[in-house]
Design a protein that fits this description.
STM4215-like, two-stranded antiparallel ribbon, 8 strands, alpha+beta, six-stranded mixed beta sheet, Pvc16_N
């Protein structure tokens, strides 16, 4: 099977944080794409949906690191974008979203000791930040998903590293020589 699927593992870890913070609600959060082609989310459950991902802008140009096969690209840090909404009546939706905000506000950084393998074997930490897209951005997201807009939370999640696939690495420079020839008189 190879390397663990870091993105799926991060989504599962986020769901687990919510479940651990809300033991009175049982398993009430499901991973769902929210795309209209994947069918409706379950009633009386929250849907946690990965809606976009991008390389983390602060780590894109990291220097090469030592790998099994020599120098390889540094692991890639990602910024994942999530949408969370609850499928129930409006008042219950507000109560449940409040519980999610509390869970991530209480635990905004998930560190290795709290993560489950294989994710804990791959990443040092995961950072969760509530974000606020503009009204136009929210409308665009719901439109792309093919669903009517709902009250929802939006989170940015930083995760590092996503390792490179082990292949042939680059060689190492053993000597570097510069000869300078002076100008003739």
């Amino acid at each position: 099977m190879g390397e663990p699927a870091v993105i799926v593992e991060v989504s599962t870890a986020l769901r687990d944080v919510i479940h651990q913070a809300t033991p009175d609600l049982d398993d009430w959060v499901e991973l769902h794409s929210l795309s209209s082609v994947d069918g409706a989310p379950t009633d009386s459950k929250a849907a946690l949906a990965l809606i976009a991902l991008e390389p983390h802008p602060h780590t894109v140009n990291e220097p090469m690191v030592e790998g099994i096969a020599g120098l390889v690209r540094a692991p890639l840090a990602l910024k994942l974008h999530y949408l969370v909404t609850y499928y129930g009546d409006h008042d219950e939706t507000q109560v449940r979203l409040d519980r999610i905000v509390q869970a991530f506000h209480t635990t905004p950084i998930l560190r290795r000791p709290t993560l489950q393998p294989p994710l804990s074997d791959t990443v040092e930490s995961i950072t969760v930040r509530l974000c606020s897209p503009s009204a136009d951005e929210r409308n665009n997201i719901w439109g792309l998903l093919g669903r009517p807009g709902r009250v929802a939370l939006f989170y940015e999640v930083d995760v590092a590293p996503v390792p490179v696939l082990e292949r042939e690495g680059a060689g190492r420079v053993r000597t570097h020589r510069v000869d300078f020839v002076g100008a003739a008189p």
